[in-house]
Structures
1.
Amino acid sequence: MAPRRVVIRNHTAEANLFARRTFITLCGVIVLLLLLLVNIYNLQVSSYEKYQTRSNSNRIKLLPVAPNRGLIYDRNGVLLADNKPIYSLEIIPEDVEDIKATVKAVSELLSISEDRQTKFFKAMKRKRRFKPIDLHSRLSDQQVALFSVNQHKFTGVFVNARLKRYYPFGDLTTHNLGYVARINRKDANKLELEGKADNYAATYAIGKLGIERYYEDVLHGTIGHQEVEINNQGRVIRTLDYTPPQAGKDLTLTLDIELQMIAKRALSGKRGAIVAMDPRSGEVLAMYSNPSYDGNLFVHGISTKNYSKLLKSKDLPLINRSLQGYPPASTVKPFLALTGLEENIITPETRVWDPGFFQLPGLPNKYRDWKPWGHGWVTLTDAIEHSCNVYFYKLALELGITKISTMMERFGFGDYTGIDLHEESDGIMPSIAWKRARYNKPWYTGETLSVGIGQSYWTVTPLQLAQALTTLVNHGERKIPHLLKSTTEITKDEQGIAHDINTDVIYEEKAPIELSQKKHWDTVLKAMHNTVQKFGATGYNAFKGTTYDAAGKSGSAQVASIKQDEEYDAESTSENKRDNAMFIAFAPYKNPEIVVAVAIENVAKGGGGSNAGPVARQIMDQYFGNRVINAQSTTLQKANNKNAVASINHTGHSHSVSLMTIEQSAQRQQENN
Amino acid sequence: MRHTGQEQQKSKSLWQKLHIDLPLLIGILALMTLGVFVVYSAGGQEIGMVYSHGKRVVVALIVMMIVAQIPPLSYRKWAVPVFIIGLLLLVAVLLFGHVGKGAQRWIDVGFTKFQPSEIMKLIVPIMIAWYISQSNLPVKLSNVIIAFILVLMPTLLIAKQPDLGTSLLIASSGIFVIFLAGASWKLIAVCTGLVSAFIPILWMYLMKPYQKQRVETLFNPEQDPLGSGYHIIQSKIAIGSGGLEGKGWLHGTQSQLEFLPERHTDFIFAVFSEEFGLFGVTILLAVYLAVIMRGLWIAAHAQHAFTKLLAGSITLTFFVYVFVNIGMVSGLLPVVGVPLPLVSYGGTSMVTLMAGFGMLMAISTHRRFHV
């Protein structure tokens, strides 16, 4: 207890003191309240925009919407790459009252395996709130129908449709179209580097190979956005705005799928490649490499087992042989002859004695002809018709490697053709400089002789051969081979009606080859005409009785070296050391419309004329036969893209002939896969 | 003095008979009404929450009325024993208290749990005011020291629970009494110096890591935007995005979409600022200032040193509530658990506050009891 003292209190003084102190505190209170107000003024007025933005970025999320990938058609409007809907069954656990019971009931209804259910519950543990989880990623149509009828019983469970790439022709088009597959880390990094990552925010797959890869930017389209308001847990409250994606452009290729099918049939059971081109434009009409594989496998993510099977197959199905180098063998003789004429080493009348072999002066080595007893006296035409090696040994020797390689490079050998595929290889056009750079060794004259018959280090791709032949038949005009014919963009006008804008792709030409005398072209082309048309010439049997006027040149490339005095016998040589058969052809002889290059590996018997020649003929038969039927064909519209989800308003491409056959065989391919 | 009292008694109005100070009541009811609306918005527009809030408001008003009936000078008789019981209860809380939200604040007395620290908010100013008013003003140094010790005991006990917010309020309620009693400026300067010197020691040895983090967060909330900085960042976003006019009642996205934590309790000011903007904030602060000024007016016109000091302390403690809460929500002060008085959803603290206002009303209306 406090002490009880008698104190005389001065109440007035105390009251005054207290009043003073109260006044001071009141001032303090006002100052501090003003301080609060100033601080809030700073937040609400000075920094208003900053906090307004942050408040919006809290609540507004942009959900990316993937654009539909452009479709790919062949030159006649047959659909080659489609987007097909696949249906997945998804659940948002937060929207479901009893998740275990619901999963069980749905699984029972749609007979979903225990496995998938376990996977679902595992995924549920590590996902973000209000994100849907797949219970089944590829529902059948039946399951979709069954669920739709019963949907009202399952809140929070829904079917989601996504588009996936589908190649209806399977392995027939894989080497040209390539395929799309899931964007992996490497792709993501690359997109990031190129500043395209934002545009791919919602995209699942990217072109990995072929046309899909080369024209990725054209096919992909532009991302759209859905602007939604979300709460602090990420649940979507409402949609504020929607910017639709712009679908990628459709591509129409130069390929003719029917010709492609013939190419496949012609190569069945063989390893090799066919390239058919229109020499007037450089359009690739067919390009097929056998064996091939089904690109659809990669779209869904290929299994390790399937992939290693493809990798380990000794037939190397993953390689596009149309773009791989082969020794050109005698197919390059017309080009060498042209070089001889241009360099004035030979004339059409020059005669050479062929005893069956050729020897460098003063050296014992014999360079053999394919005909052991020789062709006797031969002129340039004879030499091409019968593919006489000795003639070309002599020509090569007199030309020398430098003149040869210079001219051959002008035809595009040893360089990329510039086709719209990234998988192209450039082959090898050997030269002194090339050998120095590659092997750091001098050039030997003997090697020049081998080059004279398209052997030695020389490799060309079937596509290069087709391109060089194009230049030859065009009298020096050089076309760039290409697969893309036109692009189609769908735009909407003010009334919202979709319009197609078709843009033909224009390709530049390369600098033409100018010869001192134009008749040299004709001399060589005439010899190639004889090769096919004259009885007994190397291409005669293959093209006997055609309705069109063809010309061509065969080639048999030695794969293994043969020792001096040794005889080559295909049957006794192990399979992978047997000769490759080559053939180049064009038709009609006057005003050519098609050039074909064929390479077939390790043929059992005979040379290019008997193995590759008939293959080239089948393509031409189809090509010219096609035109006859084409005149009376019925017009078929959108035959193949009935179930395309992307609503594409196509002007009907007129499409020729036996579409039934195509569909049937496409189906057959699917079954086989 | 007696003369004036008689005069006033003659002109006693109905409100005075009821021991209600009308201007103060109007201010309080204005804040409470506002509180009901903001709680409705902050609580996700649930009418149930408004009911339970309304119930507490009514209970608090009744408590205020009852307290207002007690003649204030009679508190003095009870000051010492109640203060001692209060201290014992605080010790008991530390020893046997109920743990809630990481702190021991509650004591279980069979039928209910209660917080002795809440009661100390009222007992401490009474105790100090009583002690100091025993001797003449201005207060002497020796008395100041004893008063300090009396304040420090409950403050430390409550800080130990730990309940920083309440211990701060209790310490300030005591210190305000000492200041109003005329502690010399020299002494105030020395004490301020000592406290400043004490801060580093407090920081290094006495503060718990989570308390330190709160202070660090104050200076740099962006350091841990999803952790310790989350409250203050979201709160500043809410206030800032309200702008001049606010987003409108029930339309604050920060609160309605639940980005703002503790939005109906300690952070209700952010909800209010987001929805009513700077205009609303200015009006709210003006109402608070009006209530405080009325409280200080009552203190200045009280007729005894004890009631003057008590009224001043209660009013200023109310101001500390306002300042600390708005300061922490708007990022000026570290986060300590202090509600926005009369607006925040919450029971105990509102009842204590209103009991305090009851005392103020008693001081304003009971004028015949003099020494």
Note: Chain B has two domains: 31-69+221-366, 75-207.
2.
Amino acid sequence: MMRHLETIAIPVGAVAVSLVLFGVFITIAGANPLEVFASIYRGAFGSWFAWQDTLVRAAPLMLTALCTALPARAGLIVIGGEGAVVVGGFCAALVGIVLNGVLPPLLVISSMVLVGALAGGIWVGAAGALRHYRGVNETISSLLLNYIAIALLNFFVVGVLKDPATLNKPSTFPIGDANMIGAIGESSIHWGLGYGIIVCVALWFLMRRTTFGFGVDVVGGNVRAAQLTGLPVGRLIVSACVLGGAAAGIAGMIEVAAVHGRANTSLNAGYGYAGILVAFLARHNPIAIIPVAILLGGIRASSGVLQRAHDLPDATTLVLQGLIFVLILASEALYGRIPWLQPKAPPKEQPVMQAKEQPKEQPA
Amino acid sequence: MTVPSPFALEAVNITKRFGAMIALDSVSLSLRRGTVHALLGENGAGKSTLVKCIMGYYLPDEGQVLFGDREQSISSPHDAHLLGIGMVYQHFTLIPNMTVAENLVLARPRLPAVINWRAELASLEKEMKGMPFQVPLQASVNTLAAGEKQKVEIIKQLLLNPKVLILDEPTSVLTPNEADEVLSRVRAMTQERELSVLIITHKFREVMNYADDVTVLRKGKYIGSTTVAEATPQSLAAMMVGRETIASPLQRAQRQRGNASLDVTDLWVENDNGVDVVCGLNLTVHDGEIVGIAGVSGNGQKQLVEVLAGQREPLRGSVRLHGAAYTATRAQMHEHRFRCLPEEPLRNACVGPMSVADNLALRRYDRPPYSSKSRILHRAIFKRIAREWVESFGIRTPGIEAPIANLSGGNVQRSVLARELSDAPHVLVVANPCFGLDFGAVAEIHNRIMAARNGGAAVLLVSEDLDEIMEMSDRVVVISGGKLVHETTPATADMTRIGQFMAGH
């Protein structure tokens, strides 16, 4: 369908333009852009080793992208993924520490997933509720909730919950090796990737195939039409935010249970913010988030190669990420305006309006 | 040598078309020097279009504007300002968080790069002495009452020394006392300053008290001009709303009045600005009758419909459907088969980017056969029902998967009709259903609403088109100032009295 052509052509075009601009930037920085592009490809997808790094980085991005994508379907711009990752990871770590050795690992991990999802859901759900019931701008409130989450984490990991053994990087006590999420087969990819894909597919089904998702789309498309048909607007908005926050909370849990083994400031490594970019690139479609997260994970994975091979700072890939973000946001304005991407115009109805004919009257 | 024209401004045989719609049909108007001239008509009569042609927002298709003695081609509001035509708009154009003085200086067409505020203030204070009313120069605009703001708007124009001042419904945001003050000062000003004022209004009281001449438009046609001295509210009402009775081609089944289905008791609603616009309204609609609410827009009918549609919370009062409390939840709408055709259907009743098929399913998507008990959507059913309705309601669309925003206004309205009327509604609320539609579509929509009524639905029809109300209704009520002030039937209606009630006279 032409309509789908547009939703693919515009983001792809925006990414292409950002690659060109990035090339200009690379040239100014003193490297050969074509070689740099080749290195990015090699660092992201050039070998099995690169693929593993890419997929490990993609897993949390899939989940944090949902934190922006689901509220966006209900018409809200939420950028609180980072905070949800932090509270989700932190609360999951607490549960892991408390239940370590008390319950079998499978139950501990399940509890960590549940609590991480719950914490992230409440965190972002609060931004949705503030928006609907109190009129607080959800973009600002979710951003501020990020800072609150990070401050709380810092407070606890350097304070009451600090493991005295962690000197260089204050952290909580470990959740125990038995409760860690393992790797898939022989690879270095942990099962967090499976969580990410499963959650994306499940939420795609919820949004596209169920009455709940349809209701959320109606609210996001036109609140007045939702009200006219009696939809519970507040409940749908808050639910979409809770689900998105829960996904990001699971991302935090995975970072704890698959990577660090404890909660520390590595939780706010920017996955929440990168997830915003993934969500916009994927046009808030949970299935499209999977490949886009892998693409972005690849770009992030290649930063080390750029540093080694071209003597570029490792923040270089952040420049590319930033360029893509700006151009994707700018390209939103192009929808419906590029003539050859439009579906055929509907048959024009002839007289749209007509003043009723009436005999002219004399003034009384 | 010619004698100087007695007219400050003349519009001669102005015709303006938008596509096939004729918004103005050979309308003329002559504004005598140093007088106040009222332009009177219902909503949609073409008053604003005429003024926009004079101000250069629109280019008339035929006819010309004479300014002073000469024909002038005014192709933009800028040209109009240069000629000395100023306009005060219906809605405030002041910048709320700046002071009055800042707003007044800002309005000047040419500003120096650096503004010497001390000098500007001094000269403003001097000029204010010659103004018909005073405003506090240092006050921030957002601290002013509506009447004060309106005065600032007028002073803003007067400082530019216009020869002609156009006021678009200047009192719509004012209390009666404020309106009296502003208008009497404006009137005094015309004599002192050789200023000519054209005032757009639909209030007879203002015409009778403050205008010298009046021109009446109805449905884009010139009805007549007269001096106010020769006019009476009755004669103006007759000119404004017309007196012809309309033969009804509709199939109206004879019915006994049924049970009260929709009951509104002591309803109070405020508008977006926190002003009470529905003030203790009581209304009952019975099964099998159409109750038409006539009224000039802005008298609370929009907010009344929004409350019934669930788009606005009332302050207090009750709405009952079939005796049960109604708070516009989905369950209640389903139980009482409450359906609504709001005005501006694309804005109020459709999700623009969603497909025609999805929009047609909005009422019932969460029930069989659209979805299963486990809440899984059956998209095939969406499509099948959409195809049926596109066929039976004659919705012209490139396909049922096309976004509904791509359809023309008439087809959007047909889609909403299909959705709202297909499952035999018991209570139906309709607002301006034919606004902007062609003749054929109007007849079709009227027939479908009448069929719902004949099928036993209680229908509430809110319309700015008095002909439509008279044609459709079993009972007619008039809303003014947020209350129902008059009730009659089309058979016994006295149009002059209805016009007077509508105008709050």
Note: Residues 244-248 of chain B have pLDDT under 50 and may be disordered.
